[in-house]
Amino acid sequence: MKDLVLIHGRSQQKKDASELKKVWVEALKKGLDDAGLALRLDDKKIHFPYYGDTLIAMMDDDKDVPAIVVKGVSNASDPEQSFSMEVYREVLVQNGVTGEQIELELAEGDASKVVTKKGPLNWPWVLAGLRVLDRSKKAGAWTTSTFTHDVYVYLTDEDIREEINKGIRKAIREQPTVVVAHSLGTIVAYTLLKSEEAKSWKVPTLITLGSPLAISAVAARIRPLDRPACVRDWFNGRDDRDTVALFSLAPTRFPVEPITAKNNIHNISENHHGIESYLADPDVARWIYEALKDS
Q: In 58, 134, 151, 219, which residue has its Cα 20 to 30 A from 66's Cα atom?
């Protein structure tokens, strides 16, 4: 069996790494069972580089909790607000939140107070849209806000990015390694695997799940969008209701080919983003099976 490296996403701080690894492995076993596949998973060859506390520990005290959007305020810097607004606009459009709904929210339900100037032109407008989204139960404003904050920190803070990457490097050895990444972890995996130092690594298969790589604000900050030289096969799994994976990794939005995609995974978690449902999908389990089995 090749090495298997599992790269988790956000919201994993203050959790037990061994327990999180167990959750991933048990979900994968279920997917294998449902696919009618048998694979001996050697725990010593499964690596779970845990960085859940790094984002929290290395941030300033006033940044360890992102904007609570339901209160209509933000403690984010101007550059982070700009990044967040780019992301939020796409989130609102993809979830069908209309300008009329947002204007009514700004007027606190009083149509006579609706402003005539429409469009996502300022921070209060976007935050009002997220409150509408929160009530619709299509996606959580808190989930969107915290995820966006952590992505911004990873992409812009060199110290935090290096600390996280250092742990991933230790998990990827010289032998062939299959990488499975989720959520923010797909950004971590992609940026590291396409770095100069990774060109000598052997990654026969990269599997990304619930990935936000195709969000415009994210893609713009990880250019050039090149295929990692060390990666042979790339698979991407997504539930099209996922509150984080807004778009498929299709050539029109993420021009890196070829990527084998499945965009109709049924993720039963509340925000359709949880790792357990992704790994339990029979097709995802089959991707991992084919990548790990002895050839």
A: 219
